[in-house]
Design goal:
single chain, 535 residues, 8-stranded parallel β-sheet, 5-stranded antiparallel β-sheet, 31% helix, 16% strand
Length: 535
């Protein structure tokens, strides 16, 4: 297991003039030591295979058993919708990775309170079903990314039940304290009592949080990671990573940031020793500045700022330099991890649907997808986004059944009623409309997949001297692709002072585009152009 790692340590020693002790069960690497060890790993091989990822909320996606509950076999049945494995067809989305929200046994519909990390919730299927999903997805060139919740478990997890009884070693698996002295725990928000025992559950009293300082807990998590990676899982998504060591959870003065980093980087090193090509992306819901230290702990972080900036630009009609800010944000993350891969998205399973945020404006929705699918890294699409599905809080309403067709007695996973999506055009409807949002997504994903500049290229802003026009280039090797977007609901003009636009091959566009001899151009209302610059 450690042969490859030992050789790397020798190389680091020669290059850095320092000594890092080979790993043993007793060794706890520092953050700096882990950073050096992790530098040899990257996501290059994953990125060669994956251009766009798709987030499935399992209970809501597709039902194969007829009980109105989305399940693994429903996902298997819909793999051809996502990617049929034939690059010559255009009837599939063409996605190359699926992130599944939790699928482990749990008493809640969302499954973020896990009772068994080694099994599948029986309402979703079996381990055999999951293995079949992994195998059939791999046949189509799709990687499966599994959601791991290591901050907390279900209150009904056997570990916590045994901890409540004082059984060893489980009594130390969770953040349990006999007393909470005011000088050490001045803010008791998140602390709960059960049978006279104080335990921490920052999200909910039914989600007790782990004692991540406990080596036995860390070994449990390493074993869980190994189990699923050896089943063929291609990636990991970690939930709520900044909450591993909450400030309220630990005594005053605890260096929670350093402890968080050391814990997650330890798991990252383990995952990479099991499968160096496994892709690890984490949810660190915060500002870019606060995210930056965490970039060194994973391959990727979900980019919450990106979607917010896109929404502000589209709703205001003014770009306000958001692409400059986005590029600067990426630079900040890469200053912590030179191998960092971005994970941009518009909205996710915890947020109002993007179509709602854009005022149900189809033109804005089309442009939002252009921004998303022309960025660096691995863009993530939330299921149904490609249909223009709607929804606002509470959470159940942003997780409504996927709109396959108009019948709730079919493969539709009608686990809850359509409150916001009765009128959303279904997959069946949009298949027949060449101008539909679904077919627009299909074309853009295909364009991204077949153009290396859009997948791997560096990004630079191209100023066209109009506050309602966004311009940027993506350059990889000798290929440059330019993206122009009109945020305004009317035709407007821009200037091509560097002459980049004089000779280019348009790959995708919407609304009229006219280039003039005086190096100015006009782009139609909420139109866009994606073009390859000719050398």
């Amino acid at each position: 297991m450690f042969k490859h790692l030992t050789l790397s340590l020798i190389l680091i020693t020669l290059l850095m003039g320092c000594v890092i002790v080979p790993p043993t069960e007793e060794t706890d690497y520092t953050v700096d030591e882990l950073k050096e060890l992790l530098l040899e790993y990257n996501a290059e091989n994953f990125l060669k295979d994956v251009s766009v990822a798709y987030n499935i909320f399992p209970i809501a996606f597709a039902d194969a058993s007829g009980d109105n509950i989305g399940d693994l076999r429903g996902i298997i049945d819909k793999l051809d919708y996502l990617n049929d494995g034939d690059p010559n067809t255009t009837t599939d989305l063409g996605i190359t990775a699926i992130w599944l929200n939790p699928i482990h046994p749990s008493d809640t519909y969302h499954k973020y309170d896990v009772k068994d990390y080694y099994d599948i919730d029986p309402r979703f299927g079996t381990l055999e079903d999951f293995q079949e999903l992994v195998d059939k997805a791999n046949e189509r060139g799709i990687k499966i990314i599994l959601d791991f919740v290591f901050n907390h478990s279900s209150i009904d997890h056997p570990w916590f039940r045994k901890a409540l009884k004082g059984e060893e070693p489980y009594v130390d698996y969770y953040r349990i304290e006999k007393t909470l002295p005011l000088d050490l725990y001045p803010n008791k928000t998140g602390w709960h009592q059960l049978f006279g025992i104080n335990y921490y559950g920052g999200f909910w009293d039914k989600m007790p949080e782990f004692n991540l300082d406990n080596p036995k807990v860390r070994e449990e998590f390493k074993d869980i990671i190994t189990f699923w990676l050896e089943m063929g899982v291609g990636g990991i998504r970690y939930d709520a990573v900044k909450h591993g060591y909450d400030r309220r959870e630990w005594p005053e003065g605890t260096p929670t940031l350093q402890k968080n980093l050391q814990f997650w980087m330890t798991l990252q090193l383990h995952a990479k020793t099991v499968n160096p090509d496994a892709f690890v992306v984490a949810e660190m819901w915060d500002t870019n500045l606060n995210m930056q230290p965490y970039a060194q702990a994973y391959d990727s972080l979900f980019n919450f700022d990106f979607g917010d900036m896109v929404i502000r630009a589209l709703n205001s009609g003014v770009q306000s330099g958001f692409m400059t800010t986005h590029i600067r944000n990426l630079q900040g993350l890469r200053s912590r991890n030179p191998n960092y891969v971005d994970a941009p998205f518009l909205k996710n399973h915890d947020q109002p649907r993007i179509f709602n945020e854009l005022g149900f404006d189809l033109d804005k929705m089309r442009l939002a997808s252009v921004f998303l699918l022309t960025q660096e890294g691995v863009p993530f699409i939330y299921y149904g986004e490609e249909l223009g599905m709607r929804g606002i809080k509470p959470d159940e309403r942003i997780r409504e059944p996927m709109r396959w067709n108009d019948s709730i007695s079919s493969e539709v996973a009608y686990w809850t009623q359509w409150q916001y999506n009765w009128d959303t055009p279904s997959v069946v409807d949009q298949d027949q409309d060449e101008a539909s949002l679904l077919n627009h997504y299909r074309r853009l994903i295909n364009l991204r997949h077949n153009n290396q500049a859009l997948r791997f290229g560096d990004t630079q802003v191209y100023n066209v001297f109009n506050s309602s026009l966004v311009g940027y280039t993506r350059t990889f090797e000798d290929e440059t692709i330019i993206v122009l977007v009109n945020l305004y609901n009317g035709a407007i003009g821009g200037e091509d002072r560097e002459g980049l636009l004089q000779d280019m091959e348009i790959l995708s566009s919407y609304e009229s585009y006219e280039y003039r001899d005086d190096a100015t151009f006009t782009l139609g209302p909420r139109g866009y152009v994606i073009a390859r610059l000719k050398p």
